[in-house]
Design a protein that fits this description.
Elements lengths: L3 E3 L7 E4 L10 E3 L5 H5 L4 E5 L6 E6 L10 E2 L2 E2 L13 E3 L7 E4 L3 E3 L4 E2 L9 H29 L7 E5 L5 E5 L1
Antiparallel strand pairs: 1-9, 2-10, 2-11, 3-5, 4-5, 6-7, 8-9, 12-13
Amino acid sequence: MTRITSLHPTRHASVQLRHSSNASALRFALLGRSELTLAGADFPICLAKEAATGRFNLIALFSLIEPRNLFWRNEQWHTSYLPEATTTAPFLLDANGEYGLAIDEDNVTLHANGIQLFGSDGQPTEAVGRISARLKRITDDIADAQRMVDDFAQLRLIRPLQLVLQLGDGREHQIDG
């Protein structure tokens, strides 16, 4: 379970980030438009349909069968490129928060003399500005990719596929959409 809270100068005065998050169960990551060339060198690039909305998303595919990331072994990535959406934890944009950021408190240690997010005056440090700018850039890039995919859909350049894969043990795995 995650505890996501708005960034606050008293609560998050100092944190220590846990840098080695476990990506073993990560099946895909959203991609920004600018990432297509680099991500395509390592990962299958797909348009995945959201079941609830019917909208397609541009993704880098890590696995077809959950929960297994084929690019994560021995507690590390084995790729030459990492999709930027996989590198944003523990921070999220928070339009309603005073500083525009939220933090997943399950991915940090609070008050552990780590990276200073706020100065002694309670004002955000340069680190907060850098994190916020990076998240905004990644979010804008993903939104740009989404507009491109929406244009493809509007022009009817996307059509659903049905694939049936036969696994090594003889079982079948069906992919719809």
